[in-house]
Amino acid sequence: MKIISLYKNLQDREKKLVLISAFLIILLILYFSFINIYSSYNRSSLNLLKAKSDYEYVYKKVKLFESSLNKKNLSSDNIEKIIIDYSLQDKITDINLTEKNSVIYISFLSSNINDAVTLSEKLINSSNNQITNIKYKNFNDRVGTELIFN
After folding, report:
1. Count of domains in the chain?
2. pLDDT tens sequence across 71-99
3. Which whole-number Å values give the CA distances from 31 to 18, 28, 35, 39, in the listed order?
4. Nearest 10 degrees: CA dihedral of 38, 42, 48, 51?
5. Hey, which end of the chain has fewer CB within 10 Å, N or C?
């Protein structure tokens, strides 16, 4: 109880200084606590962003790898399967697949350019072969397409 008696023996000006300094010390402690919490939060946020970025990178690589495993050699069965999968049965006709000297030619007619591009894109993405040329020709109300693969 010496502290209390010491405090009571102080003059008013000294008591005010002690109270102000105690208040400032409490504010300083709160300030440093807040800075510590805020820096921990920022560090955690950066770690979260890095973890998300790493996850997305790995996820994209796995998807790319899976899509490369799903690629097949071009055949009439695979083309028909793609047409059925994307509901293009009524829109794509006269499919012709020929192979000469390890070069594959695929030609077909479609009702519009969108269907021709859709089928071309799906064939290119699902094939082991490399596309070398794409030709689109307009025939009145039909679009003729020729794809050439290596």
Report:
1. 2
2. 667 778 888 888 888 888 888 888 888 88
3. 20, 5, 6, 12
4. -140
5. N
